[in-house]
Every structure is written in structure tokens, then in C-alpha cells.
Amino acid sequence: MQINEEIRDKEVRLVSETGEQLGIVPIAEALKIAANQNLDLVKIAPQANPPVCKVMDYGKYRFEQSKREKEAKKHQHAIEIKEVQLSLNIDKHDLETKVGHAVRFLNAGNKVKVAIRFRGREMAHPERGIEIMEQFASMCGEICTIEKKPNIDGRTMIMFLVPAKPSK
Q: The pTM is what?
């Protein structure tokens, strides 16, 4: 944003601090009006013909803008990826415990990465890993959807779950 002497146009459409249209004036006159009021001349619409400039306190404007940005940042929620690791020969109760963790993560609005690490000769039975992944997803129930189906990457099988959109 250009302010005061940075504005190089011959004439500008001037708007007062209160929002009143002052018409098209030469830049020198616009700068003089701003200086008389101890305020800054700020170009707010450079693409217009002629460009629109407003008389305002630029420091106060920047402060208000940063305050609004901080407020907007406060209400944002970053989605994290939480990981749940399973094994190929996981017991029923252990699986239920891991499902409980995943449900808690999903209810908090996070993605869940479910991983099974194949050890030794377990690589000969990838279908067993897919069964466990599908069972895990079905135990999570209606609160999640499978974003990425089970897929083997090296010695690890990975599946991503995301929170289901609330039905209206």
C-alpha cells in the first residue's frame, strides 16, 4: 500500500477520513489536505482510474488490521495427523483400545494415520493386514470415513481416516 509521497499519480479521487467523497484532486492538493489534518494519504484502490486515496491515520489503520488478523487466527483450527500403530497379530482388546484412541482423535477433528509394520515373514500375508485395517475402520463406526485405503509402502501398510462430515 502506498502512502503520502510514495503516490506518484498526477491526480487522485480523494475520500475523507469520515468516508465523504471529496472528488478528483491533484496529488499535491490531496497531500496538503492530509498534512493539514495531521493524517496520511493512503492509496486504497490503485487499479481504479483515477486511483482512490483516503485520508486516514495509517499507523492506527495498520494496528486495527493486525488486531483483526490475530483475532481471525485465534478462531482457526489446524488439522493434525495423529498416528495409531497396530501389529499383524494384535489381540481383540488391544485393537479396541487403539480404536478408542482413534475415535478420540477423530472427535477432536484430527486425521488419523493407521499403520501396520510387517516384521520378518509377515510380508507373506498382506491380506491379513488389509483385514485388520478394514476391521479397525468398521469399529470406528460412522464418525469417520476412509480417506486413503490400506496401501503397502515398503514394510508398512498405511490407511488414513478423516472425521465424517456431520449430516444435516
A: 0.55
Contact present, 149 and 119 (Cβ < 8 Å)? no
CB 34 within 8 A of CB 4: yes
Q: What is the C-alpha to C-alpha distance for residues 107 and 125, in angstroms, rounded to an integer?
A: 32
Domains in the chain, ordered, with CATH? 4-71 (3.10.20.80), 81-163 (3.30.110.10)
Which CA distances in Å does 112 have to 36, 53, 81, 158?
61, 50, 6, 10
3-state SS of the chain: helix, strand, coil percent to 5? 40, 30, 25
User: Are residues 55 and 41 in contact, defined by beta-carbon separation less than 8 angstroms?
Assistant: yes
Residue 131 DSSP SS3: helix
Determine whether 54 is exposed, middle or buried from the number of CB atoms within 10 Å of its CB (0-12, 13-18, 19+). Answer: buried
Confidence of residue 112 (pLDDT cuts 50, 70, 90): very high
- Cβ(101)–Cβ(135) under 8 Å? no
The C-alpha cell at 42 is 493512503
Instruction: Specify the 3-state DSSP secondary structure of 47.
Output: coil
